[in-house]
Amino acid sequence: xxxxxxQYFLNLQTQSWKDKYIKCLVTLxxxxxxxxxxxxxxxxxxxxxxxMLNGKVMKLEQISNPSxxxxxxxKNYWKTDEVLVQTDSKNYTLSNIKDYFxxxxxxxxxxxxxxxxxxxxxxxxxxxxxxxxxGTNVSTVEQIFYKPGSFYDNPTLLNGxxxxxxxxxxxxxxxxxxxxxxxxxHELALPKVDHxxxxxxxxxLKYISNLVNDV
Length: 215
Prior knowledge:
Elements: H1 2-11, H2 15-21, E1 25-28, H3 36-44, H4 55-62, H5 66-70, E2 85-86, E3 91-92, H6 97-103, H7 108-120, E4 130-136, E5 140-145, E6 156-160, H8 168-171, E7 185-191, H9 202-213
Parallel strand pairs: 1-4, 2-5, 4-7
Antiparallel strand pairs: 2-3, 5-6
Helix pairs in contact: 3-4
GO molecular function: O-acyltransferase activity
Pfam family, one: LCAT
InterPro entries: AB_hydrolase_fold, LACT/PDAT_acylTrfase
């Protein structure tokens, strides 16, 4: 959420203010276009990678956060007919995502999704120099598959590329600003670095340290 929140904040400021006070924006694992993992959380929750936590118990708190709706896959990066959840009776895409919220028995999620949709679709460049750092080549859920049954069963998660939490297409979203602002956009993709370990990755720490020393 930090990346999109920073973008939202910067879009509220005048260019003169940004020119005066912001040297650059450094983002780690920015979910610029959301993540399929958010879709998964609405169904079965997330154990946050800890064997001590139960995803289905955690789900009760997780789905109550409007920020989760903000992290739903964006139409800017997923086709509206691209299957996100497959069942024996219905496939769910962005075009019928309201049905998904209803069928997982959380219609409030649809209301939160509508409230945050304008933010998730916003591709306005931040107007500052950006250093976009993220991990790649880590198995990341791309699609959710249910065998005949219901949403109360554990689904099969079909994986693709990303940082283990955010899909690669979303992580690379910052590059779209290159043609929308005069300030440079720098990308640093780190193979096999996941969404959380990036915080302590030595290459990232050195990169940021060099930026600070140059200020």
